[in-house]
């Protein structure tokens, strides 16, 4: 490929900023899709230092992961308002944005929707229904009318103005939405493949036992029944979103013209 001035472009690897709101969150299926695409990932561990990207020009896409806090916990997590503004800046610039669980709730906040706390508890593998718009959307196109995926949340949100609802469940009406070309929020944890779920099971047994009594004892059976389908759906969603990242081309001067 050459530029308008006849000079070759250097195809840089896509650069993706990942915001980790809670330690050891894990990218799971999304890591696999990004690796396939040769992406460069820069982690921002805001749970540790609150540091966010200063500019949007350094990255082609933004991922905001989940966490135990709510999207409105500004007092205990003072970076949240700035993070909401950052997601909006990426989206308004036409860049790909992905919010997962808490990330989707922060996206909803950024685009003027309401966050509803503690009214929509789901945990474990669940069936998610795909809307008519979702069946035609690149993110969920390969999944048909419903799919199985992992959930872990208690909060939900109203649909931002101008957003398209892509998926729904009886507990949380807004399971996935799109704004513009490639700003996506998923309430469900499509990144949570069997390896990620196993890690969460090992790290948070007391929390899981409290919110889902009996699940730990049934985990092996549930994983055998639902894990394969959830892994396949999660990887399909991850690959679909990664395919929407648009890289900025960097023009290179040839030695002859230098």
UniProtKB/TrEMBL annotation:
According to the entry, every stretch annotated as the Glutamine amidotransferase domain falls at: 29-194
The record's section on PANTHER family has:
GLUTAMINE AMIDOTRANSFERASE YLR126C-RELATED
Q: Does the keyword ATP-binding apply?
A: no
Pfam families xrefs:
GATase
Q: Which GO terms describe its molecular function?
A: hydrolase activity
Designated name of the protein: Type 1 glutamine amidotransferase
Species per Swiss-Prot/TrEMBL record: Rhizobium indigoferae
**Keywords (A to Z) from UniProt:** Glutamine amidotransferase, Hydrolase
